[in-house]
Amino acid sequence: MAKTTENILPSGEKEHVTLHVNGEDISLLIEAHWTLSKVLRNGCSLTGTKEACDAGACGACTVLIDGIARPACMLLAREQVGKKIETIEGLEKNGQLHPIQEAWLEEYGAQCGFCSPGFIMTTKALLAKNPNPNDDEIKEALGGNLCLCDNYEHIILAVKSAAKKIAKGGK
Amino acid sequence: MPRSSSIGKDVIQKDGRARVTGEAKFYADYQIGGLLQTRILRSPYPAADILSIDTSRAEALPGVSLVMTHLNYPQAFRSSLYYVGDLVAAVVAKDTETAEEALELITVEYEQKKFVLSLEDAMKEDAPEVFEGEKNNHDWEFHAFLSDRDPETRLFKTKTPGPYNGFGDIEKGFEEADYIIEKSNISYALCKAPAMESRGCSMNYDGVKLQVYTHSQGMHDEKYALAQVLGIGQDKINYVSPYTGGGFGGKNPAVQNRNIPSHYLIIAGLACLDLKKPVHCAYSREEEMVCAWSRGSSVDVKIGFKKDGTLTTMDYTHRQETCSGGDKWPPKNAMLATGAVLYSRNCENLRAKINYINTNRFTAVGWQGYGVPEGHFGVETTMDTAAYELGIDPVELRKKNCMRAGDIDAGWDPLTYISAYISGSGIEECLDAGSERVSWKDKWQHPDKKASRVRNGLGVAIFTMGAGRVGQGNSSEAIVKIYHDGSVALVCALSDMGQGQHTVQCQIVAETLGIPYERVGLVAHDTDSTPFATLAAGSCGTWIQGWATYEAARDAKKQLLVLAAEKMNRKPEELDTGTNGVFVIADPKEIISYQDAFGAIGHYGGPHEIIGIYVNNNPHERCLKDGNPEHILIPKEKGAQFISLDVDTETGIISNIRITMAQNVGRALNPKIVEGQLSTSRHGLDNAVLANDCIVDKRNGWLMTPNLVDYRFSTALECDVDTVILEIFDPSHPFGASACGEGAACPTLAAFSNAIYNAIGVRLLETPFTPEKILEGLGKIQSKTKKK
Amino acid sequence: MKRFTHINATSAEHAVSCLQEYKDSSYVIAGGSDLLGCLKDNLWMQTPEAIVNLKTIEGLSYIKEEGSTLHIGALTTLTEVAESSIVKKLAPALAEAARRTASPLLRNMGTLGGNICQENRCWYYRYPSKLGGRIDCVRKGGTKCFAVIGEHRYHSIFGAVNKCIAVNPSDTAPALIALNATIKTTKRTIAIDEFFSAAHGAGSTILDRDEIVLEILVPVAAKSAVSAFKKIAFRKSIDFALVTCAIALEKDADKITAVRICLNGVYNNPMRSQEAEEFLLGKVLTEDIAKEAGEIALQNAKSLFQNIYKVQLAKTLVADTLLSL
Fold first, then answer.
1. CATH code for the domain of A53
2. Can you tell me the distance from the alpha carbon of B459 to that of A124, in angstroms, rounded to the nearest whole number?
């Protein structure tokens, strides 16, 4: 039986960890209570992940953990070691926007843009699972992301347009 | 085509790319080395005095840089506290954990005082005074009576201070009315301004200047205020605010007013200057929920009609709960809903009385609509009641009485003009277009005819909202630079917090110069690089800034044409600018490139850039009818909103909500942006049916819903918004536009109330429209006592 | 959030030994959406010293049918439960309850085990310390319940337990009760009817402090068995319920031969309505019978000033859920 002292990070101490973010290994010093969103923003300088409600209730901090959309403000960074983390910064490749980003831009999916990274990451997970969602499926999948500019019509159009782009081989 | 055109097109959002890649730097994204963190200690009591405060243990904690209280920073902190969450002390430390630990080491001795937590209680004679020596209930000090109406122009000539806003003879009006419809205590529960980004700032003194990283609806206004409070010159501050994560009024801090909680600026500013170290001060979502702007009111409306439904007389009473804050201005915008503007067509007699009332709740400051939604909720539900009682179709009653272009705005803004011409309306057309979209004539049915468990209701409300202000403080400036490679920069500080002004202003430049939109760059990120721009509030950007941008572009163009004329041996007036250069209007094939128009540059001298500039001390001369400075054409947002919904009579739950928003925008400069603005009708939905009022514990003053779990904003699933965009050219704008922005949420409370009435015959006049109120109205449940 | 010690458990035994070592000052973390919320708001009178991560224990996430029982690992996410074709087929009430819980993002991290062990959502209990200090209500060891005399529009309509009128917020709990599940822990196997216990300290279950849910077992009923779950909430996503209802029943030639009804959001514990169940046995389901069952289920309701409407909601929901079967 394992001892309690194994796999332990005591309160107030820092630990070296490696997070696998957007295809790269990033070595960091973290504390036990630090959330993933904090560490991404402060430790990795990946500030595209936004913090808005700090309660998992708005989706602004959505990232993909092994392909699954989760709110980074409710995840402990330490618990993400060994997982594949994708943030908004990982979408653009060689100066080329991801089809979802392109669609967002064309359909005016961002108003103030504070929610956009989260919505785009949720959409990426949705389209990976369901490449051709209908309106109801889109709305349901976006149910954890708030846009307080209320730009939902454009956002839904952007998801549909992104699905078409991806189907045509965009990505 | 030598000229390129972008007006009326869905061009790509100017700074959109950065918004979808995560590169957009909102203030909290600036990473500054050694940034200190701030945490705030907040009052546990709704009313108390600080008898003593001991910060010695906090100060002794390693890592703490500064502890701020009313003792060492009286300009920011007070010894009296007026609401739960009011500012007691702040700790600046090396990290948030240390700052939080230090907060727990501060000991405060409070003396609790009597308090009052509701508008109703605050108005009682023996109510505890929120601010000592000051009655809670204030008469509005700017009431003005209009008289001396010119029979020809219909404008009023005289304005005199009085006990209420109005004109005509209210008593006589009601005496002569055939019908009088009256509703009282139409209550808009306190609700919070939405914005994804909570407020805060980082400040860094770089040896020369205080660099302020924050969000802003008007960074120059904010900079001036902050400089004053900090006691430093405006030249010593640079405000950096490239992106603002939603505003809706809430990103318009009142730095000097300590009753209005935008303390993050003064706390960070004082700490940064004193410590000479970078300081971050931000509100958590919970703090933001307490400190964010909120609105709440109670109004009475009494309307007199002729037999045929002509509205002749209106009596309007508005009680605004300003809570422990000091924003008494929103009620002036409520005037827009009355016979002063919205029903100015036939209204001969108006009395509108405004009071504002302090309570010991968090601060109330207006947001989206700024008083307009409150006024419309009252007037448009009373109009709806009238339609049913008079037996006139609700759409027809409004068509008969709503404002038209050329009607008189009877001074909704009592400080700046006596009365003015309404430059455009189109509400009748919006009512027609909206009715058609929702099949009003086929689908509308009297509630008496509905009997099924789930009943559909169809409601309508019309609205108007300001689209620009005139007079002092409402100017805006722009610089347009043309470079010799044919690229252009708009230098303009107008905030884009999602409403699309960065895009639209660049479209105006592109259109004026006849060049592709993509060639227009934007300089808008800080105050050092930009001239003053108006506060982006009151849906005024397209109008106030639009004129400045348009004229600055024209100024630049004029200068370029003079340069080109020399090279082309032509007169400047024979020439125009376009995609590929300057061309002869009569013979577009005769063209020279921008480079050739400039001539040699670089080490050889010559003009390197052309600088066009304009200060719009509006009203612009083209907003004056016949050039007469007293004949102002004042634009409005205006339209009609239809709501269709289903009410389950067994549960009181509302579903299948569809909002149809018909708005005359004059000209849709960018249709996608217009659609996006109209979709903010959901903010009305939030307040109407998601039960997200700011519930406060009546015994202790705690805000019970200080997070986004318990305070509900619409998700993608709550409703659909359908838009009907009308474009009836507005003569007060260079491209015929007026505005669209705040208006979308202005009619929504009334439209919901009216739709619910149409479904079940129950008139709800207190928001939010909860299952409890619906079930009570239907007689399915009885309250144990009258709920307060 | 305050600092704590974090331990990645390697096995259930390891996790239990950690809990024993840190005694009352430790919590386990699964999905974390509830726990981190509590920690961020610093709402407990004592901050836990240690957090024990269960996600590093292998083999606690699965859905399988074995014999006549559906086995669901405690760490299976709500999304996995909601989307599982086996759960949808064999326990539709549970699949629907999982689908209606919170939001898609939270369902992607929230676990079934965590969902039935979550803290209540009473505004007073959850009041964040940032806004003038936490509220030490009776549930936390304080002396009084502030909701009874204060804001209780979403609180219990069946009275208090130990002075507390908070409601159980779980959506999957009523479904598991209707489906007559059992809970396997590190110590024992517990019938779902015995699992929830508001009387048992600050938590909402009978679990000991060093006890961890490992598996949820749902009996696969006869072929004629059906089940359904309905939820009334303000928004169609994110929100906790005003009222939920889950019902499982079996019929023989139209007559009800077995039925279990459970409401939630109405009382400290999920509320089984045995009187309504008895009433329904042997009856053919009609609209009138369903309504009467709803009336019976709520006949002992003791609503407060602000939550009378919830009685009407619950009555209607019982009838509606029955009629959907």
1. 3.10.20.30
2. 38
pLDDT at A124 over 50: yes
Looking at the DSSP bridge assignments, the partners of residue B657 are: B719
Expressed as residue numbers, the domain containing A145 is: 99-167
The whole-number pLDDT of residue C202 equals 47
Q: Which pLDDT does position B600 carry in this prediction?
A: 84
Domain assignment of residue B730, given as a range? 144-191+294-469+633-777
Query: What per-residue confidence (pLDDT) applies to A169?
Result: 85
Which residues on chain C are in Cβ contact (under 8 Å) with B771? Answer: 242, 309, 313
Q: Would you say residue A23 lies in a domain? A: yes
Q: B286 and C238: CB-CB below 8 Å?
A: no
ipTM score over 0.90, yes or no: yes
Evaluate whether residue B4 is within a structural domain: no
Sort out which chain A residues have CB atoms less than 8 A from B29's CB and list them.
Answer: 41, 47
Nearest CA in chain A to C48: A11
C2 touches chain B (CB under 8 A): yes
Total count of domains within chain B: 4
Query: Is pLDDT of B343 > 80?
Result: yes
Rounded Cα–Cα distance for residues C170 and C231 (Å): 11
Same domain (yes/no): A114, A140: yes
- What DSSP character marks residue B306? -
Q: How many domains does chain A have?
A: 2
Distance (Å) of CA A95 to CA A45, B269, B453, B672: 19, 38, 57, 26
- Contact yes or no for B377/B499 (Cβ under 8 A): no
* Tens digits of residue pLDDT in A53-83: 999 999 999 999 999 999 999 999 999 999 9
Between A42, A52, A112, which is nearest B497 by CB? Answer: A112
Residues 158-197 of C with CB under 8 A from B: none
pLDDT at B2: 87
Under the phi-then-psi rule, with left for phi > 0, alpha for psi from -120 to 50, and beta for the rest, what region is A22?
left
| Cβ of residue B243 closer than 8 Å to a chain A Cβ | yes
The one-letter amino acid code at B771 reads P
The answer to whether A45 contacts chain B (CB < 8 Å) is yes
Measured between alpha carbons, how far apart are the two ends of chain B, in Å? Answer: 67
How high is the pLDDT of residue B470?
Answer: 84
Domain contains B628: no
**Residue A139 confidence (pLDDT) above 90:** yes
* β-strand partners of B34: none
**pLDDT < 50 stretches in chain C:** 202
